[in-house]
Design brief:
23-stranded mixed sheet, mainly beta, single chain, 579 residues, 4-stranded antiparallel sheet
């Protein structure tokens, strides 16, 4: 029997200065477009903003499993029962301070890196008399999931001719997930000078992006807890009803999955070449009941339910050929299915009524379905060493992609830009991968602890979607065409040291409301770790992104930069104990 309990708590505070652009041409004094018709420079008349967000996350989970095994003669029977319970709660408080007047601000994105921003001269961003408390949130999200599952697997040893054994088994699982969204999203025109001075403070980032960012480095932001209030609305309005349950942003999902399989294991010789493998068939069925709500025009709520079901027959086959004592070939084919995440299936809709955006689920999502084929050649040329080459192809019947569209929301007078998962059909994916594992155990003494791990993959994918900005076919989300890792390591006598280089080329993140692809540019990092084991006790230190690489995302065309992020270097130290 295995039981694992884990708990965690995290806090985050961030604040930022912003000048929000607009689609109203009358707000622009001048502007400039790229050849791809992307707004890349101009001067706009807009309010100036200071933003502050606080986030506290608490999570805990318990999982337990009981395993039984029985063997007699040719029979082997295994059974398992499991239970898991997970809770995730987070509290979000957000305050925006905004100037009552609008000012001329110039911007320039043509440099391809950090945008240039020229603020109006003569405006004191630290003068509280210029600002209102314009928007604030007090949100709490309570999520939980419970799963009960059981499975039985039977194996019968045949060992006759090429028939090695026969297997059959089944699994059933019941999953319950739910989220309660307690929200307060309010606007006001309360002046900073009409409230206690403790409710605002100076936000300052003099070294932002290494001092290369030509933005406001000091500005005013809200401090909703400055007077000891528990909520932003309480601090700013004096009295309020914070964190009201919003049924439209809450949901319950009940899911039952049943699966069974049969598998025939093979073993024999093809002429002088030994082979092994299996042929199998798996059946799976998932039934879901999803419940959320819609807001009627009169402000009351109407329950919304959905009960999708998925059923699949999934054949598979794989064969391994021992061409020599060091050279192995593998071939495989299978029909595969991947179910959407629970939150992506919710009929609930979480709205931001300040900027008219939203995120929602889609209870009618189909699973990811594909026919996949792969072949590989593996050369084990020395003890602990390997060089492998593989080719793969997937014919994708349905896949999942993220899309943003303007939607009419029941009970709301304004359209919202809603982001949710949708299905695409007819995708293709093909590629190749190479992997090298080379410990220097052929050397003597100290040098024998060194080694190299390297891998490279090429992935070419296509979908029926077209980038509305450029006309190019869009790939599958999250897949870089080129991926590479190179690790140099030393491991000997309890001491371990690793330095890793990681690279991935640009990839599609999502599809915008206008049908444009939102892409991340190529990204590379260097990571390192060191550890030492004193028997059962060990200590370690890790460092990530040592070169402090930037992440850049653009929409439609490379000059349309939507995100320029410096993630920073990450460091961790720790200890572990084995028993």
């Amino acid at each position: 029997m295995d039981t694992v309990y884990a708990a965690g708590k995290a806090k985050r505070r961030r604040n930022w200065f912003a000048v929000a652009l607009t689609s109203n041409g009358a707000d622009y004094v001048d502007y400039s477009f790229s050849p791809n018709e992307v707004l890349v420079a101009g001067t706009v008349r807009r309010p100036l903003q200071g933003n502050d967000e606080r986030l506290t996350i608490k999570d805990d989970s318990l999982s337990s499993a009981l395993n039984l095994r029985y063997e007699k003669g040719p029979w082997t029977i295994k059974a398992e029962g499991s239970y898991s319970d997970a809770q995730l709660n987070y509290n979000q408080t957000y305050v925006r301070t905004q100037t009552r007047a609008s000012y001329l601000t110039s911007f320039d994105f043509t440099g391809g890196g950090v945008p240039q921003l020229t603020l109006p001269s003569g405006v004191d961003l630290l003068d509280p008399s210029l600002y209102n408390y314009s928007n604030f949130f007090d949100n709490r999200f309570e999520s939980n999931a419970k799963e009960y599952a059981g499975r039985v697997d039977l194996r019968y040893a045949i060992e006759s001719g090429v028939l090695d054994s026969f297997e059959v088994g089944g699994r059933i699982a019941k999953l319950k997930t739910a989220r309660n969204s307690l929200l307060s999203q309010l606007t006001s025109s309360v002046r900073l000078t009409d409230r206690d001075a403790a409710l605002y403070e100076v936000g300052s980032f003099p070294d932002l992006l290494g001092g290369k960012a030509p933005f406001a480095q000091s500005y005013l932001v809200g401090n909703p807890f400055g007077t000891g209030a528990d909520f932003a609305c309480e601090a700013i309005l004096g009295s309020c009803t914070p964190r009201v349950l919003d049924p439209t942003a809450s949901y319950k999902l009940d899911e039952v999955t049943k699966a069974g399989y049969v598998k025939l294991n093979l073993k024999g010789d093809l002429g002088s070449i030994p082979f092994s493998g299996n042929i199998g068939l798996r059946y799976t069925r998932t039934d879901r009941d999803a419940v959320s709500a819609l807001r009627r025009a009169d402000g009351t709520f109407q329950p919304v339910t959905a009960s999708p079901s998925y059923e699949d027959w999934l054949p598979s086959a794989v064969l391994k050929f021992d061409l020599t004592d060091k050279l192995v070939a593998r071939v495989g084919a299978a029909k595969v299915v991947g179910l959407p995440d629970s939150q992506d299936l919710s009929p609930g809709l979480l709205l931001n009524r300040i900027v008219y955006t939203g995120t929602g689920g889609n209870p009618n999502l189909k699973p990811f379905r594909a026919d996949q084929y792969d072949v590989s050649l593996e050369w084990y040329f020395r003890q602990g060493s390997a060089l492998t080459v593989g080719l793969f192809y997937k014919d994708i019947g349905s896949f999942l992609t993220t899309r943003s569209t303007f939607e009419d929301v029941p009970g709301e007078t304004q359209q919202f830009l809603v982001t949710r998962k949708v299905n695409g059909e007819g995708g293709k994916l093909k590629g190749a991968e190479v992997m090298l594992q080379l410990p220097f155990n052929f050397l003597d003494g100290f040098a024998s602890g060194f080694g190299i791990l390297a891998n490279y993959s090429y992935i070419d994918s296509s979908t029926p979607f077209v980038n509305a900005r450029t006309g190019a076919t869009l790939p599958l989300e999250g897949l870089s065409k080129h991926n590479a890792n190179l690790v140099g390591y030393y491991e000997k006598d309890g001491f371990g040291l690793r330095v890793a280089y990681n690279y991935r080329s640009g990839y599609l993140d999502s599809v915008t409301a206008g049908g444009e692809g939102s892409f991340f540019k190529p990204y590379e990092t260097i990571d390192a770790s060191i550890r030492y084991d004193f028997g059962a006790f060990g200590i370690y230190a890790e460092a990530g992104n040592l070169t402090n690489e930037k992440q850049i995302r653009y929409t439609g065309a490379p000059e349309a930069i939507a995100l320029y992020a410096e993630q920073g270097r990450r460091f961790a130290i720790g200890a572990n104990f084995k028993f």
